[in-house]
Write a structure and sequence with these properties.
heterodimer; A: 397 residues; alpha/beta; TIM Barrel; 2 domains; eight-stranded parallel β-sheet; three-stranded antiparallel β-sheet; 15 helices; globular; B: 494 residues
Chain lengths: 397, 494
Amino acid sequence: MKSALKWDVIAKCSTTKARAAVLNLPHGPVNAPVFMPVGTQGTLKGITPDQIEGLGCQIMLNNTYHLGLRPGQELLDACGGAHVFQGWNRNLLTDSGGFQMVSLLKLAEITEQGVQFESPHDGSLMLLTPEHSMSLQNSIGADIMMQLDDVVSSLTTGPRVEEAMWRSIRWLDRCIKAHKKPESQNLFAIIQGGLDPALRKQCIDEMVKRDTPGYAIGGLSGGEEKDKFWRVVSLCTDLMPREKPIYCMGVGYAEDLVVCVALGVDMFDCVFPTRTARFGNALTATGTLSLRQAKYKDDFRPIEEGCDCIACKSYTRAYLYTVVTKETVGCHLVSIHNTAYQLRLMRQMRESIIEDRFPQFIHKFFKDLFVERSAYPEWAVNALKSVNVDLLKEGDN
Amino acid sequence: MPPLSFNIIRQSTQLSAARRATLVLTQATGVQPAADKDQQDASARRVIETPGCLMYSVKGSVPHLTPDTLRLQGFGGVHVSIEHLLQEHQPAGLEKWPFSLSKFLHLQDLILFCDIRDPSRYHKVPFNSDHHVSMVTHQGVRQLTLEEYLKVVRAYQPDIVATFADTISDLDQTESGKVNGKGRGQKRVRKSVERSLKWLDQILKERQGIDGLAEDRALKEASKNIKSNGSLNSNGGNASKENLKSAMDQLTQDAQRLNMSPTRSAWKGVSVFAHVVGAQLEQERIRSAQETAKREGVDGFIIDLKTVPGSRDEVFGSLKTSIDHLPVEKPRLVYGMQTPGGRHTRAYINHLLKAHEMLATVLLMSHNMHQYSQFFAKVRQSIQDGTFEQQSALFVKRFGAEPEETGSLHAAQAVVEASLSKWNRLDGDDSEREAAAEAAAIAKDERLKAKELRRKERREKNRAEGLQKKANKVESLRKQLETEHDEEKEPKMP
């Protein structure tokens, strides 16, 4: 099908499956691997678009389900899309609304036709079909839009998983057919199939035939065992076309990002950094600081030495201790820092891939974060071993 | 050369007392050795153009605005309330932070004005005494003594500090949220004037490096002695009052002799603005203003309109009463004034408000601040042009009808604040992913609970079984005993 993106791989890691690339989208280039902050309702938790741009963010996520309910399709059409609506001149990615099936299952009923939701605002029934999702996403005008998929929880087993996989393929066909602006908006397919390698393989085979501009690995990050999670990711990146961007949905913990980049994933999103910020938790290379704790009362260091975000440049931990979870400013500052942290982590990975020292980066990253080798998560050690990086072996530094 | 200067650029030539001026802070060298960087930052000339306003802050941050957004607003000064900064028992970082409060709050490029209480809140008559004022903190109502306040000033080194004052409000909040004026006793008002003047004197001494509080302690000691001698009852007859007075005079002289030369370093970079009080009583307002004006070393005056009840005309009448008795060459700061109220569209802000997103208040705050900034710029320009009187008459004609009563302002403010705090709940909903995570957490919790319950049940069951066994044993023993007993008894029965 038509594509409105250009995917230029500029470097490949000689050890792992990691790669550095430039994803050229309608609203400018995006350096990959990339983390996309989540602005669910057309705004990133109190951070102004200028500030987000100032952090070097090139692409942000919006949620179709939320924007469809509010402000609604009519208004989005009237103002010319979500970019204009929220004053954001860089790229946007919208998810299809499918994820809400898992998270709002109590309110949703899935049939071949689509997903029937109960509106959380007025209780009325809404049917989200692949056609409706596409129409909404066309109105939003995101640079990347996701197909409506039949999401089952990654903990589900049995025939439901296979049913969901085949239905997702059928829905992809309907999405492709309903997509009105393939020349300016890119439709990504979402690989389903739960934790079953055979189903995943079948799904990839079918979806690759549809030749969408990019692919996402869906149906993960739902509480499955990490050791199963990475195996599915690695299987998918092995089977997916290497000349297209690969997006792993809902992944955002720092160690998960590093492992998944090593497994060959290019794009990520997660609400975790901004959500945890609202509880006063600041992310750093050496772990999370819970700034509400009294031990920061007299700590006059910035959150993270060397961080150039506005929170670290302006304030000490002692000051942030007085405002986090009490003032909105506290929340904005930590959100800004956490977003800056995520984006910096991705930048560092990208640079190390380009300079072909990514394995060294991985070693240092785990050492900084977990200090002791005994504290390294076993799944991460296994995953990285599968791409020739042995975290427990000396001498790689 | 004093660090603060007030330069009147143009006095309105017409009927009003309007004037255009600048409040300039040339240099701030603190009492304590400031770090090089701090000095560098402070070396820039900082200005507040007047008529103008200070930015209100909570915990030293202008609500909803991060430092970068704040700098876009174009104001020269920030108001910080000590009561916000109280953590547990002392203001944040007070003893260990080696630099100024400006640096702690990242406000080195602005003029930092420091007062004790939050000027936006309406306070009932507080339970102040001769030794402390009450303030509201996260840990509840707390008392602050002058001594503690002076310690705060020395450590924090704000550019301008408000005097310790017994500001009493004459407004009372009823259950329905309405605020009505309720005449406060003359006695209480007079007391507030006296206390505030006394504290003002002590602050001015402290500023020169004289430990005025040592005197105070000596006086206290004296009065204690006199009391213990039994020559003075608590209300004080004339004779005993004189006794006390002479004893005090004596002691004051002693103390002054001791403190003739400053015992500690004077404040170099801190200027003093004095609260002018007097609540609703005209003669007390005049007395407070006149007495405060007499003091040397006061750099400016503060008048709190929130303490005065009545219609707008009455409130402005009270304001005028105070201002008429203050020196014209010094700046005046008024609390509780209201003025009527980019690329982001109204539709977007409407969406953010409906979605309870925090960016709504960020953008609105930004917008409103900009309006204030523009408003004051226009006022200054009109003074400059000599058209202030005509412009203000036009303005009042256009916007002047509402609101009439100070009470309605407070009520409206209360409603807005209540709804805003609801929107800005920091633990508020984010997205469905979050909801899912929460649901998962709850489910996990429930699983754990169920597990715990099962374990408990098993324990109970085991215990019950054990008890049953024991009971059976006891029963059998009892039966055995009974039969033995019976056997024992049996022979006696017949």
